[in-house]
């Protein structure tokens, strides 16, 4: 018998890598979390489409999500981060946002 | 079902969604069921669990931020998904639908194909939750035989459809 999730909250895993210089000017980061349903090819495409990443960069981020549990896919001010999260959710990806440096 | 070039493909002026009658009807029926779930004003606990992957927690460490985000954005996300479902109905629709007017396929632009792709993925997320799809090997063991169920066959079909959407949109 499977156990159904009653809520969808991420668990803490290994820290992702991201560009610290860019983050200093953009205090919010957007993370995509690994989930067992979204196809790897789909995640790669969505990251390319929403953020304009090259296939190589989007694939690298997707693999970070898959192997490390999550990846920082964007950063910006609060409004920008909220917009990114919303668009990721429109595509069904598991995205959260937080202030940079709040990772624990 | 034999198809020339797959169920979703690029065309000279956009993309083509090429589904036989039974598959188009199936996708529309599933979309209708999901629409009912999303518009239910008083969903029961089972319904809330089924759609949990469609509305992830955004601020897992800050309940106040989370409440404020959901207050501002949840309904907009619901409306976005419903708008995509409406487009799928138009694309795959019956007598007045785009598909019926152009034969057995729908010629669509990129925006409409993305709406179709998002909707197919929403269905997968709900079915995946229903099936308990997991990377966890222990759960996979318990779920032995899962692939023989009708629900899993449906999940696999939607995965196949989604993969073709991605390929077409990626120019692969």
Using brief descriptors, characterize the structure shown.
heterodimer, A: 104 residues, alpha+beta, three-stranded antiparallel sheet, 4 helices, 43% helix, disordered N terminus, B: 172 residues, mainly alpha, 7 helices, globular
How are the secondary structure elements laid out?
The complex is a heterodimer of chains A (104) and B (172).
Chain A: H1 20-25, E1 28-33, H2 40-51, H3 55-68, E2 70-76, H4 78-90, E3 95-99
Antiparallel strand pairs in A: 1-2, 1-3
Helix pairs in contact in A: 2-3
Chain B: E1 8-11, E2 14-18, H1 21-39, H2 45-50, H3 63-92, H4 98-101, E3 105-108, H5 110-131, H6 137-142, H7 150-170
Antiparallel strand pairs in B: 1-2, 2-3
Helix pairs in contact in B: 1-3, 1-5, 3-5, 5-7
Portion in helices of chain A: 40-55%
Arrangement of strands in the largest sheet of chain B:
1-2-3
Broad structural category of chain A: alpha+beta
* Low-pLDDT residue spans of chain A: 1-7
Total count of helical runs of at least 4 residues of chain A: 4
Could you tell me the radius of gyration of chain B in angstroms? 18 Å
Distance linking N and C termini of chain A: 33 Å
General description of the model:
The complex is a heterodimer of chains A (104) and B (172). Chain A is of the alpha+beta class and 104 residues long. Helix content of chain A is 43%, strand content 17%. In chain A, α2 crosses α3. Chain A is globular. Chain B has a three-stranded antiparallel sheet. In chain B, a hairpin with a 2-residue loop joins β1 and β2 (14-18). Chain B starts with 7 loop residues before the first strand and ends with a helix. Chain B has helices at 21-39, 45-50, 63-92, 98-101, 110-131, 137-142, 150-170; strands at 8-11, 14-18, 105-108. In chain B, α5 packs antiparallel against α7 (150-170).
